[in-house]
From TrEMBL:
<feature type="domain" description="HTH asnC-type">
    <location>
        <begin position="3"/>
        <end position="66"/>
    </location>
</feature>
<dbReference type="InterPro" id="IPR036388">
    <property type="entry name" value="WH-like_DNA-bd_sf"/>
</dbReference>
<dbReference type="InterPro" id="IPR000485">
    <property type="entry name" value="AsnC-type_HTH_dom"/>
</dbReference>
<protein>
    <submittedName>
        <fullName>Lrp/AsnC family transcriptional regulator</fullName>
    </submittedName>
</protein>
<dbReference type="Pfam" id="PF01037">
    <property type="entry name" value="AsnC_trans_reg"/>
</dbReference>
<dbReference type="Pfam" id="PF13412">
    <property type="entry name" value="HTH_24"/>
</dbReference>
<dbReference type="InterPro" id="IPR019888">
    <property type="entry name" value="Tscrpt_reg_AsnC-like"/>
</dbReference>
<dbReference type="InterPro" id="IPR011991">
    <property type="entry name" value="ArsR-like_HTH"/>
</dbReference>
<keyword id="KW-0238">DNA-binding</keyword>
<dbReference type="InterPro" id="IPR019887">
    <property type="entry name" value="Tscrpt_reg_AsnC/Lrp_C"/>
</dbReference>
<dbReference type="InterPro" id="IPR019885">
    <property type="entry name" value="Tscrpt_reg_HTH_AsnC-type_CS"/>
</dbReference>
<dbReference type="InterPro" id="IPR036390">
    <property type="entry name" value="WH_DNA-bd_sf"/>
</dbReference>
<dbReference type="InterPro" id="IPR011008">
    <property type="entry name" value="Dimeric_a/b-barrel"/>
</dbReference>
<keyword id="KW-0805">Transcription regulation</keyword>
<keyword id="KW-0804">Transcription</keyword>
């Protein structure tokens, strides 16, 4: 799908505030509501807009510890890797999971209440996955920049 400048402006505004009504969005774009509504629906249908979420302040819900955990698998066969992925996506503490290159195979972003909860997660959940060879944890001391907006 080819995006024109109006599509890009729509995406820019919706990334800043997904609560914008079609009327508000059309006012910002100097277009009538109907074409704006149709463009937004097309962007949704084509998968450019994947969904809408509320961004929750993790500290307000007592999820104060963010950990990046690198995982090295014991076995790299396709079936073993697929099983690991199936298991890891089931863990609520894992917010993000990336297959990476380099010394490790996967990078996890884990959000928990505190160090005690992370230790319990590591020992009782992560360590129970059979294909994990080793892990390396990096603890976030402060969050400097965390954006959800993409430049379009």
């Amino acid at each position: 799908m080819k995006l024109d400048s109006t599509d890009r402006e729509i995406l820019k505004h919706l990334q800043e505030d997904a609560h914008l009504t079609t009327k508000e969005l059309s006012g910002r774009l100097n277009l009538s509501p109907t074409p704006v509504y149709e463009r937004v629906r097309r962007l949704e249908k084509e998968g450019v807009i994947k969904g809408y979420v509320a961004l929750v302040n993790r500290e307000k819900i007592e999820k104060d510890l963010m950990v990046f955990c690198s995982i090295r698998l014991k076995e790299h066969a396709q079936e073993a890797g697929a099983k690991f992925v199936q298991e890891i996506v089931q863990l609520d503490e894992v917010q993000e999971c990336y297959n990476i290159s380099g010394d490790y195979d996967f990078m996890l972003k884990i959000i928990v209440h505190d160090m005690r909860e992370y230790q319990s997660f590591l020992m009782n959940k992560l360590a129970s996955l059979e294909n994990i060879g080793s892990t390396h944890s990096i603890f976030v001391m402060s969050e400097i920049k965390a954006e959800t907006k993409l430049k379009v």
